[in-house]
From TrEMBL:
One Pfam family linked to the record: Hemerythrin
Annotated segments matching region Disordered: 169-190
Record field: transmembrane: none
Classification via InterPro entries: Hemerythrin-like
Superkingdom as given in the UniProt entry: Bacteria
Residues annotated as domain Hemerythrin-like: 14-141
Species assigned in the record: Gilvimarinus algae
Protein name: Hemerythrin domain-containing protein
Compositionally skewed regions (Polar residues) per UniProt: 180-190
Amino acid sequence: MTFNTNPLFMGNAIAAIHKTLRAELFAVSALLSHPAAGIDEIISKLAEIRQLLNTHSHQEDSALESLLRDYDPAMANRMEDDHLKFGAQLQQLCAQASTAQALPEHRHCELIERLYLDWNRFVGEYLLHLDLEERVLLPALMRQLSPVESLACTLLMQAPPTRREWLGTGGAHAGRVAPSNGSLSLEMSR
Ligand SMILES: [Fe+2]
């Protein structure tokens, strides 16, 4: 797969993917807060979102790291460190859920409650990471555009596609950002 490093394309693709990531993070929070949630379902959902977030981190590292390093080396280091930290935290959360599964059923409730707190703390940190990327990293990319491209991008960002449009088979943007093997991938040709 070759990466399309056009800043306009990447900025819009990443912003759209981040909307979906936020929705998936909140979906796991909702599952963990549901009184009927079983440990098997929780383990499966955590494994799924771990793959999704890890794949996204790798894609950002591959597509953006060199561009960002030219603009702001400290920010590039921060992004790289964050991705490593989140990978380790996701591994820990999945291990925590697997530990709960091995314990007697009467202890599941207490351990799921702890997992709920730990997961939401992770979500809080991850949301700040996404926020930083969108407020700092994407504008840095946009500054590489010509005035005409910049205006076009601003107009596009004012009316971002909905999650359904990006992911659905019939949406105007279908195929530009699509789930693949449980992950979101950037389709890198225009
Ligand atoms: Fe990131």
